[in-house]
TrEMBL record:
Organism (species): Bombella pollinis
Pfam families: Peptidase_M19 (PF01244)
UniProt cross-references to SUPFAM superfamilies, sorted A to Z: Metallo-dependent hydrolases
Coiled-coil residue spans: none
Protein name, per record: Dipeptidase
PANTHER family for the chain: DIPEPTIDASE (PTHR10443:SF12), MICROSOMAL DIPEPTIDASE (PTHR10443)
InterPro entries found in the cross-reference section: Metal_Hydrolase, Pept_M19
């Protein structure tokens, strides 16, 4: 069986912060994305070896101060990372991968035997106070989704994980966050609720005209972690047409960590039984902490698919979970964008 597999959250290696504690914008060479025998968990040769057809590469910005200096550094970092992603194909991967901004382009890359690389954003912190930056990210860089938060509240919304400061800053979404979601809908950028607080997530579902999704989260009923979605959140995803992309992070899969591909499959099966196969997909969080026994790097992606088959998923279910659900969601965002332009 030929299966299109899409991993919806992979980080690119990058220095975390400067000596001053600001998000680092200094570029890291990405030449190792074209190599097989390197420490990096995702590379295009590894993806091809594992049967992985598409990867969402995240420009991740760590949370720092909610001031002018922090926002300026974050904005500079986000653009530098997106430019590094954009440079991968012409510099290192010509004929092996394709930078893709639409579902159709992703499908075409798969037909051409190329790995589709999709630029995305992790953390809305770089937006600062300027919601017009959403349009720039979408039009200049082709960003297809953005997580509203990371670990810590920003000006857009409250986070699920707070390392310092109050438990809540906005009671969910701020007024700026609501405007940002409207801009994301307008520009074909999916709203990612991974890392967001429960209130933020529920409000985002209610506000967004396009179904929201969690790009790298797991099921709270199976592992009680604040980054995971509870049954009520799963039910809301179903009602809205959204997705949860189960992720290969041991701490989210199993209490105490140490999760395996079998644990991963249990989370997938739980979502299927609770809300349906059309609402679940796959993500690794490779090079951002992800990697479990049975799916340690992109080269082992075929082993994860085999584990899902061993847990009873049939061919149509595998296709849906492996990538078709996410492509359908991207197409919905594109349809909404087209309507806003006519």
């Amino acid at each position: 069986m030929s299966i299109f597999i899409m991993d919806t959250h992979i980080d690119i290696p990058w220095e975390e912060k400067t000596a001053d504690g600001l998000p680092s914008w200094h570029k890291r060479d990405q030449a190792d994305c074209a190599q097989r025998d390197v420490e990096r968990r995702f590379t295009v040769p590894k993806a091809k070896a594992g049967g992985l057809g598409a990867a969402c590469l995240a420009a991740y910005t760590p949370q720092a101060g909610l001031d002018e200096a922090g926002h300026a550094a974050a904005w500079r970092r986000a653009q530098a990372m997106l430019e590094a992603i954009e440079d991968m194909v012409p510099h290192y991967l010509e004929g092996e991968a394709a930078l893709c901004h639409t579902a159709a382009h992703i499908r075409q890359a798969a037909q051409n035997g190329e790995v589709a690389l999709i630029p995305v954003m992790e953390n809305g912190y770089p937006i600062g106070e300027d919601d017009s930056r959403i349009g720039w990210l979408a039009q200049r860089y082709g960003v297809r989704y953005m997580t509203l938060t990371h670990n810590g509240h920003n000006l857009l919304a409250d986070s699920a994980v707070v390392r310092e400061g109050p438990e809540e800053a906005h009671g969910g979404l701020s007024s700026l966050g609501r405007r940002v979601i409207q801009q994301m809908n307008r520009h074909g950028m999916l709203v990612d609720v991974s890392h967001a607080s429960r209130k933020t997530m529920m409000q985002a579902v209610e506000l967004s005209e396009v179904p929201v999704f969690a790009s790298h989260s797991c099921v709270r009923a199976l592992c009680d972690h604040p980054r995971n979605l509870d049954d009520g959140q799963l039910d809301v995803l179903k009602a809205s047409g959204g997705l949860i992309q189960i992720t290969a992070m041991g701490a989210f899969l199993k209490r105490g960590g140490g999760g395996t591909a079998a644990d991963f499959a249990k989370h997938v099966l739980y979502v299927i039984r609770r809300i349906g196969v059309e609402h679940v997909g796959l993500s690794s969080d490779f090079d951002g902490g992800g990697g479990i026994e049975g799916w340690q790097d992109a080269g082992e992606t075929h082993q994860l698919i085999q584990t899902l088959q061993e847990h009873g998923l049939d061919d149509s279910e595998i296709r849906a979970v492996a990538g078709e659900n996410m492509l359908t969601l991207l197409e919905k965002a594109e349809e909404r964008m087209t309507k806003s332009q006519t």
